[in-house]
Amino acid sequence: MQDPNEDTEWNDILRHFGILPPKEKPKDEIEEMVLRLQKEAEVKPYERMNLEELKEAEDDFDEADRKAIEMYRQQRLQEWKCLQRRQKYGELREICGEQYVKEVTNAPEDVWVIIHLYRSSMPMCLLVNEHLSRLARKFPEVKFLKAIVNSCIQNYHDRCLPTILVYKTGEIKGRFIGVAECGGIYLKVEELEWKLAEVGAIETDLEENPKKDIMNMMTLSVQNISAHEDTNTKSSDVMKPHIT
């Protein structure tokens, strides 16, 4: 009778159709695979512990483990600090004039503060608030605030709204005053993000200014107009009669 484990084309056909069972792997190969899988699945006990559990179990590990634990503890500590910092804010918060010094001027020195002075009756201000809300969620390590302008500054001119002020260490690092400086009535959130990144308040993942194409088109248009005017001037000069 033919050996079902023999490497023949006929046996391969029978295995393909399920007539013969799959060919048995050599025992040493199976054992090697099992050992490899066990090693891959092995997890050091301290990798499942939090910082407090690591401290309590420190005496139960040998010197090599202690070094690994210290490195692991520092890594977890940095991850925790980073998480705490990134989850600190995360929303556009409303304040009033009485809170300005505490929330803005006296904010922690390592925190960027972006505050929007607005009037709810102005559509452009509402658009900026909407964009800032989205950016606050994207950059939770930055403090985003808004305040009705009358609660902070009396008799502030509407032509100066929206007003976006950027603070760090109690000082103004950037300001955008009025519709034009804030980006215009068709402002997109990416454009506002780029403006704030240029000041240094946020670390954007945008690779270039979203308004670059528009600016290039405007520059090209101005150049074309200038060239056209120059051509017309030269044509006029040619048409002028030469009096001798």
Quick description:
The protein is built from ten helices and five strands.
Could you explain how this protein is built, in words?
The chain has ten helices and five strands; from the N terminus they run H-H-H-H-E-H-E-H-E-H-E-E-H-H-H. With 244 residues, the protein is of the alpha/beta class. A five-stranded mixed β-sheet has the order 1-3-2-4-5. The longest helix is centred in the C-terminal third of the chain and has 28 residues. It is elongated and about 100 Å long. The N and C termini lie far apart (123 Å). The C terminus is likely disordered.
Characteristic key phrases:
single chain; 244 residues; alpha/beta; five-stranded mixed beta sheet; 10 helices; 50% helix; elongated; disordered C terminus
Strand content: 5-15%
Strand order of the largest sheet: 1-3-2-4-5
What is the molecular shape?
elongated
Distance between the ends = 123 Å
Average pLDDT across residues? 79
Query: Could you spell the SSE succession in H and E letters?
Result: HHHHEHEHEHEEHHH
**Rg over C-alpha atoms, rounded to the nearest angstrom:** 34 Å
- Poorly predicted ranges: 215-220, 238-244
For the biggest sheet, the summary is: 5 strands, mixed
Number of helices: 10
Please specify the SSE layout and strand pairing.
Elements: H1 9-16, H2 27-41, H3 51-56, H4 63-86, E1 92-94, H5 100-105, E2 113-118, H6 123-138, E3 143-148, H7 149-152, E4 163-168, E5 171-177, H8 178-182, H9 189-199, H10 212-239
Parallel strand pairs: 1-3, 2-3
Antiparallel strand pairs: 2-4, 4-5
